Amino acid sequence: MGAASVENVVFSYGSRRVIDGLDIHFRAGALTAVKGANGSGKSTLLGLIAGTLRPSQGAVHLAEAARPALVLQHSAVSQALPLTVRAAVEMGCWGNRSWLRRLRAQERGEVAELLDRLGLTELAHRQLGELSGGQRQRVLLAQGLAQRSKLLLLDEPTAGVDEQSHARIREVIAHELARGVAVIEVTHSNADAAEAGRVLVLADGRLVSDSLGVA
Ligand SMILES: Nc1ncnc2c1ncn2[C@@H]1O[C@H](COP(=O)(O)OP(=O)(O)OP(=O)(O)O)[C@@H](O)[C@H]1O
């Protein structure tokens, strides 16, 4: 059993079909890059796997009962949420439990470690709205990692980040892969896609290329 599979999936917004019969099996513990022009359906595919969107036809199957962790692009998330960086990352630990529940010491330790790995410790008390786009992107990634899912869905995690942050994000992805997490990464970067074991290319909601990467 792989990490996830989409089987003959079709998805439409109104009468517009934006995913047009995708049939893809994602291996466990591997990095898969998803490329394609703007509007080709990449983010929609992640939403379908994450369960935030439901297929109009076909089915999505997940290996784990737990939900995948979906990390959106920072531009897709409100900057106005009255949350500190630390609180945003802690939200990733909530899972299905009550948000009123206090974090266990172990979870607090994990949050501190994630803040450190993503270079956010100094920013932990800042409000999300006070951060730059690249800083917010790292917060969203830390929040996704705090979910401890075996399937991590990343929507352009390195878009618009500086070189140092880029390196940190690549290290964090490599670390997750080494832990056996499957990562599906939407990217426009050839360099990032080259790190993947497999590169998928979408065009108009269809799979037009499925190749093994160089990694
Ligand atoms: N909420 C929505 N309502 C209607 N149409 C939408 C909605 N979200 C996306 N679309 C359309 O669905 C299609 C696929 O969008 P999607 O965001 O999946 O593309 P993408 O490949 O991720 O693009 P990008 O590279 O720009 O992020 C596009 O034509 C887009 O205009």
Keywords:
single chain, 215 residues, alpha/beta, Rossmann fold, 6-stranded mixed beta sheet, 3-stranded antiparallel beta sheet, 9 strands, 27% strand, binds adenosine-5'-triphosphate
Mind explaining what this structure looks like?
- The structure is a single chain.
- With 215 residues, this protein is an alpha/beta fold.
- It folds into 2 domains: 1-68 and 150-159 and 182-215, Rossmann fold (3-Layer(aba) Sandwich); 75-148, no CATH class.
- It contains 6 helices and 9 strands, in the order βββαββαααβαβαββ.
- The protein has helices at 42-50, 85-91, 105-117, 133-146, 163-178, 190-193, and strands at residues 4-13, 16-26, 31-36, 57-62, 69-71, 151-155, 182-186, 198-203, 206-212.
- Strand 8 and strand 9 (206-212) form a beta hairpin.
- Helix 2 (85-91) packs parallel to helix 4 (133-146).
- It starts with a strand and ends with a strand.
- 42% of the residues are buried.
- The model has no long low-confidence stretch (mean pLDDT 90).
- The structure holds adenosine-5'-triphosphate.
- Adenosine-5'-triphosphate is lined by residues 13, 18, 36, 38-44.
- It comes from Arthrobacter glacialis.
